[in-house]
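Proteins fold reproducibly. Consider a sample protein:
=====
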Amino acid sequence: MNTDHLKKCPRTLLCFALLLLAVLAGSAGCSDDAGDETGGISAEMLADSGKSTLLAIYMVGSDLESESGAGTTDLLDLISGFSARPDDCLVVVGYGGANKEGWRGMRIASIAELEQDAADEIIGNEDCFLEEYPDANMGDPSTLAGFLAYVNGIEGYEQRFLILWDHGSGYEGFGQDEVHDDMLTLAEMKSAFAQGGKRYDFIGFDACLMSMVEVAVVIEPYTGLLVASEETEPGSGWEYTTLARELSERPGISPATFGKAVVDSYMVDPDGEKTLALLDLGKTGELLAALDGFGVVLEREISGGNFEPVGQSFWYSQAFDSNPSEECQTSIDLTDLVLRMRENNPACTREADRLAGALDAFVLYARHDEHFSRADGVAIASPRFIATDTLDTYRNAATVSPGWDAFFDTYVKAKSGDHEDPVLTEHEDDWTFSVSDNLGVAEVMLVYCIEAEEGALAVGEVPVLPDSKGNFGRESWNGEWYCMDTGEGTLLPLYLSYEGTCGGSRQVYYSPVEIARDGTTTEAALHIYIDPVTHTGEILVEPFETDENGDVSTGAGGWTDETLLPGDVLRAYARGYDEPSGESVLVETGTITVTPATRLSYGTMPAGVYSCSLYAEDFNGNTGSSGRIVVEVE
């Protein structure tokens, strides 16, 4: 993302090993300032159970293991922290799914075998395991079903915890076996759990984006408690040394206490942008009933022509896996959405209050860092970049409830049918505009550009709010914006695309760059958090790769550092417009070599010709703009 002796495989395990082999034979062959806690866990839930515990981990290594050894690292941490007697607590791991020696197919091992294998600090290079299935595809439901059958056949343990470890894609699924290029969809996970037929006291996803209502609906029949993250997780994942010690010191730990420990230990290390929550899936029915009624009211609102307040509630809610510049946004926080809908749509007050109460009971415990001040524990799919032609893809992957699904589909179809650009009408004062659109305006920006041979190249944007009369001002601009300052007199303009706000008033920007380090060059996104009053900023680096189909995957080349380092060569871009294709394009603006003094600075841009204009966007991405005002910097 430990123990004293080898535990032999009893006769019962051998029987289930044979069952697993039969099943597999048919298979195809992301700050340290934690946010407020939410919800509430009763003292009774936190009391030790006094029961023996079995912890099962389904670890699909994928590129996390083959490129950066993240699976091995977490298993070594697990071993180092574990010391419980096997009769009190047993850990069983099914690992594989990575294109690496010992990780192709699937192996099953207990702590005893893993400890033997780890003598050289490498997992998978020794014949230390209980069972091995070299042709297994861990992205196939039959493999997961087989692993669960093996686990279910282990007798003598009164409570059972399950962790699913790998990449997560929210409603699209979990677990990318890179050998077979296959991932478990939600429907396939449901099928695998149904075959096992048993409930677990705790299920956790050490994976990105899995704290979603769509996921909870699928998992609810098989556990009472779920731990998962609304946002992407850093490759290091959960803190397994801490969790192993918790299990060893308290083998009768209650599921709720273990879940809380997962959340708290994960939030200790300020590694990336983090959220994690413990959910009470026993409250799923009440949540879905409230969400169903909420959807009915909202569908009535948009069918009656009240589209803009609903659309703006979606648009400004706390988003996850969000990069609007690349037309990506997986989900939004459900509590934040409810509060915004309630404020913007008085007609839904009653149903919003009911849903808010259901969410308060559903989320037992949630934490977030300073980057996600409006994350409350559980998310739901965002419709921002789902269109009519992709709606079936989402609907085939996930459902929520009839009322909500009907509203969601109606919203997407109405949004997707809008092809009219917003209209900006200039007033007599030459600097204020009224903005109109048939379905309503999502956002208005003041855009800053470099005037170049290729045309106007956008380097930045700031949101503009309407005045008391609902008009938007195109105020004069003196050519000040953000650059990377080497500290040696060189300024490199950055294209900063506005993504929203976090941590109260901080503005979030995205900047596409290229970074060369130690002979390796990677595409990357800079996630920049700026205080608009002091103009100070925090920069996080997220490397990524783009394949031949244009699909993006993060964590390029095993790059784990989230900061720019001295010696890095940073190549920046501005965003232009290619008239023949009608598409936006990135145009290089220059390079710098990072020094120890390099920082983000705000001030007058390098000498040149610039411009600014108002830019309006509606909920379907249609845009309109005002004329440009030219600014010369000498």
Q: What stands out?
A: The CA atoms of residues 72 and 502 lie 34 Å apart. The chain has 16 helices and 32 strands. The chain has three domains: 52-272, 285-416, 423-633.
